[in-house]
Amino acid sequence: ITRFTRAPQPLKFALMGEDITSLIVRVEGFVQGVGFRDFLAMAAAHGGLDGWVRNRNDGSVEALVSGATKAVENFVSAATRGPHGARVTAVDLTNAVPPEEKGFRRKPTL
Q1: Is 54 assigned a catalytic role?
Q2: Which of 3, 54, 55, 74 is catalytic?
Q3: 95 noted as active-site residue
Q4: pTM score, whole prediction
Q5: N-terminal to C-terminal alpha carbon distance within the chain
Q6: Residues 37, 54, 87, 95: which is the catalytic one?
Q7: What would the pLDDT profile of 75-102 be if each residue is shown by its tens digit?
Q8: What is the pLDDT of residues 1-60, one digit of tens each?
Q9: How far is residue 71's CA from residue 87's CA, in Å, rounded to a whole number?
């Protein structure tokens, strides 16, 4: 079962004429031990996104992603697929405040 949870209206910020969207993306399923964090880091780099990704103790992967709305949408699409060997069963999306740091990094497991 795939579940998509979105807040009613995404938080968007205007930056030099471009809408900026920031989301917490939580991916459930068989998503640890298959390169999911590296997969999402590559998707973020490809989209020029800021934020972070980490494993969670409950077996999910969580990311904060922020950038141009279209690039964030592409990141979420990649998260629903995952890398070869992953099996995504749910993706939850929650509005977030943009990260203070630029760039995208891996954070320790929470």
Answers
A1: no
A2: 55
A3: no
A4: 0.84
A5: 25
A6: 37
A7: 999 999 999 999 999 999 999 999 999 9
A8: 445 554 444 555 454 556 899 999 999 999 999 999 999 999 999 999 999 999 999 999
A9: 23
